[in-house]
Amino acid sequence: MVPVLGQDRRCQTMPDAMGHRRGDTEVSEELMSIIHDRQEELKKRIRRGSLFFGTITDEHYEAFWNHRCVVHVHGTLDNSDVPFKEREVFHVGSIPLSEVHDTMGLSFSCIKGFKGEGDNSLNQDNFSITRLDNGWDIIC
């Protein structure tokens, strides 16, 4: 009988810097009080409408990109993803796509890898580059 690989240990999804993966950590009364107070503040903010927990629609994205961003670029999903194909790009904003490199000092590329013969699964990797009108950059 051949043992099944990977069943003798847990998946290491947390970085080693976390120190441990325990679900039985004790929390002090002081910390529980802080958590409770912050939860109550969160509930108040939700009631006031200063936080939004609804579904983000395409209209929300478009309004944000058009009114709060200097430029936004991200990869689009292509149902015909084939290995080593460059992902198509969505772009909106006043900085032309051809000038993002010179203006923001960065380049981007998102290419589907090759997991094996017959791999036709969609590319899960993507990128997003946004320059907000307040000068902040968000790069994922």
From TrEMBL:
It comes from the Eukaryota. This is Uncharacterized protein.
